[in-house]
Amino acid sequence: MAKGVLGFTMRKRGKKFSESAKRIDRNRTYDFAEALKFAVDMSYARFDEGIDVAVRLGVDPRHADQMVRGSVMLPNGTGKEVKVLVFAKGEKETEAREAGADIVGNDDLLEKIKKGWLEFDKAVATPDMMGAVGRIGKILGPRGLMPNAKTGTVTFEVARAVKDLKAGKIDFKVERAGIVHTSVGKVSFGVEKLLENLTSFLDTIIRLKPASSKGTYLKGISVSSTMGPGIKIDPAHVKTILK
Prior knowledge:
- This protein has 243 residues and is an alpha+beta fold.
- Helix content is 30%, strand content 21%.
- The protein has nine helices and eleven strands.
- The strands form four sheets. The chain has a four-stranded antiparallel β-sheet.
- Helix 2 (32-41) crosses helix 8.
C-alpha cells in the first residue's frame, strides 16, 4: 500500500485515479482555491463526488487535554440528505417530529438498535434519555452515532438540534494519528461555495486549539474528491482565507 499526502495509508487505485494523480505536482503545495479547483476538475466518477479535507494537527490525542473535537455549521450545507434520529419522550417527541426528525422514539428504538438496526446518520437525545442511551454506547460510539453534549446533540432544544443537522452541521474528532477528516460539500457546489465551507471548518479547528498544544498546530492540509488523489495545501495560506 502507498502512503497518502498526510502520511496515512492509501489503497491502490485504478487507471483513472493514476491519470488524475499525474496532473498534481507532488513537490509543491497549492493555495486553497487552486487545490479545490484541481479536486473538482479531476473528479471522474459518475456520481456527484464529495470533497474531503484532512488536517494533520500538532496534538497528541492520547492526552485528554489535547483532544480536538467539535462541530461546525457549514454555510452551504453538506449536499447530503441526513437521516436524523431523536431519543426523546413526551412533548419533546412531538417537537422533534415537527422539526423534521426522521425517526423519533425512546425504549422502542433502543431495543431496535440492540438487535442491529442502524438506519440513520445522526442521533440526538434529550438529557433525561442519556442513562438509557448510554447502555448502547458500545454500538453507537464506534460508528460515530453517539449523542454528545459537546457537539450539541444531547439537549432539550431538540428542534434546533434537528434543524442544524439537516441544514449542514457536521461533527468532527481528531483521530489517534492527529488527523481530522471531514467532507465540506460536493463537486457540484463549485470552488466558491466549497471554499466558504472549508474556511468555516478551518476557523473552528483553529479556535479549538488546545492550550497544551505546543509548536506548529496546523501541520498539513490535504483536499480530494471522493475518488480522486489528495492535493496538498500550504497551511500558511490559512491566514489569507480567514481575513
